[in-house]
From TrEMBL:
Residues 66-76 have a biased composition (Basic and acidic residues). Pfam families: DDE_Tnp_ISL3 (PF01610). PANTHER family: TRANSPOSASE FOR INSERTION SEQUENCE ELEMENT IS1557 (PTHR33498:SF1). Residues 13-82 form the Transposase IS204/IS1001/IS1096/IS1165 DDE domain. This is Transposase. Residues 66-96 are annotated as: Disordered. It comes from the Bacteria. The lineage of its organism: Bacteria, Thermotogati, Deinococcota, Deinococci, Deinococcales. InterPro entries: Transpos_ISL3, Transposase_DDE. Coiled coil: none annotated. Transmembrane segments: none annotated.
Amino acid sequence: MALPPLDQAPRVIGIDDFAFKKGLRYGTVITNLETGRAIDLLPDRKAATVTLWLAQHPEIEVISRDRSTEYERASREGAPQAGGGLGPLARAEKLP
């Protein structure tokens, strides 16, 4: 799903899932945590999909995510510069 174009490249993002149809079909929402704006909606929550998106955005420095193993793998493989993403127990000192 296409959202309006970005004003600036995101540095700090959040990744989470959402339901297209609860219990049946889920997607991924990517949010710019500096602006609070959703920047993309992905059609599923598979690691391969998120990895591809992250690889196309090398400007990402920090990723906040839940404990999903799919999102953890995608963060590690698609954005190694972001340190694999900050899980729920990450220390605040890692934020820029």
